[in-house]
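[Structure tokenization] protein backbone as discrete codes
[Encoding] learned vocabulary of local backbone shapes
[Protein] chain in single-letter code, fold in tokens
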Amino acid sequence: MRKLLGIVAAMMCSCAAFGQDATTPPANEHVVLTVQGRGVQIYSCTKTPTAAAWVFVAPAARLFDKDGLEVGTHGDGPVWHLQDGSSVVGQVIAKAPSPDAGAVPWLLLKVASRSGAGSMDAVDLVRRSATKGGVAPGGACDVGALTSVPYEATYTFYSSK
């Protein structure tokens, strides 16, 4: 019986780990840049078929390097702009729940477009991980209202080149 419980527990752990693996880039991708995003997730109260609910609108965050220096911004698109003049727009290809139940999910995004010359020139993928906060408020809301929920995330930019 103990052996069976151990196997079941191991399966449950591997399933949880597999969920996080959905946002892990392929082995041929290497890290170009890692930044910390700090800002808000913006939600609008929208009428749905059953009730009014908070619906995601856009992120608005500042990006910081490992030394705490601001290096860019993140906003609607989703787009990441760096101070070197380069930017990328991403498209979600994988999603996994955050280990923190009160945080927005982890994401893997492929680059749909890029502009400017700089650090983002060869970026193929963007991963959002280590999220904190940002989840839409619960409960009733007034249609048309906006709210901003503070969040943090690690953004890692990858290239296969």
Observations:
- The two ends are 51 Å apart (CA to CA).
- Residues 2-159 form one domain.
- The beta strands are 30-47, 52-64, 70-75, 79-82, 87-96, 106-115, 125-133, 146-159.
- Confidence is low (pLDDT under 50) at residues 1-20.
